[in-house]
Design goal:
The chain contains 8 helices and no strands. By secondary structure, the chain is mostly helical. The protein folds into 2 domains: 80 residues, RNA polymerase sigma factor, region 2, helix turn helix motif (Rna Polymerase Sigma Factor, Chain: A, Orthogonal Bundle); 94 residues, Arc Repressor Mutant, subunit A (Orthogonal Bundle).
């Protein structure tokens, strides 16, 4: 019976990892700012999750648990290195396959959309680590306030407050950038 329960938990964890993999990777990118390190963080998270799957309680929030594992691994690595992480841009390279998926879209609209995504990524990189982390957990990791509070080890009210301040700062950073890019895009189209 224990073997069946174990295999059911492992299957459940495998399916969940498939669902949250992109969110974990995005979060790891924000924390590490390095593709290779982010990949290593996600891989180590998966390994530790598989090793600890038996300790999960039936009422556990597994998604939050995975993000917490990832964050703890990163914090442990920072403590060991005692150096700031390298600065590397978020994944700004768009594949041609993504663009080719929507052939019905106007090329100008695709260009503007790409420029806006790049501007948002750049603006997120300009945020403080505290704000960058909370924006990515909420908007890219799609975690609830409670899940973010669990990952960060702080009250839900603090999450809401930080997220509000982070969004305000991001909005401020983007307000001039998007208008400027729109003017540049219109100029490029003419």
């Amino acid at each position: 019976m224990d073997v069946t329960f174990s295999s059911e938990k492992r299957l459940f964890l495998s399916q969940l990892l498939d669902e949250v993999f992109d969110g974990l990777y995005g979060y790891a990118m924000v924390l590490s700012r390095d593709r290779t390190e982010a990949e290593d963080l996600v891989q180590e998270t998966c390994v530790r999750a598989v090793q600890a799957v038996e300790s999960l309680r039936p009422d556990s929030n597994v998604k939050s648990w995975l993000f917490t594992i990832l964050r703890n691994i990163w914090l442990n690595q920072l403590r060991q290195r005692r150096a700031a992480p390298k600065m590397v841009e978020l994944d700004v390279d768009e594949t041609t396959a993504e663009t080719a998926v929507e052939p019905s879209k106007d090329p100008h609209a695709l260009y503007v959309s790409k420029v806006e995504r790049e501007l948002v990524r750049e603006a997120i990189q300009q945020l403080s680590e505290e704000f960058r982390e909370i924006i990515v957990l909420r908007e890219y990791g799609e975690l609830s306030y409670q899940e973010i509070a669990s990952v960060l080890g702080c009250p839900v009210g603090t999450v809401m407050s930080r997220l509000g301040r982070a969004r305000t700062k991001l909005r401020s950073l983007l307000s001039g950038s998007l208008r400027t890019s729109d003017r540049q895009a219109k100029g490029a189209a003419e």
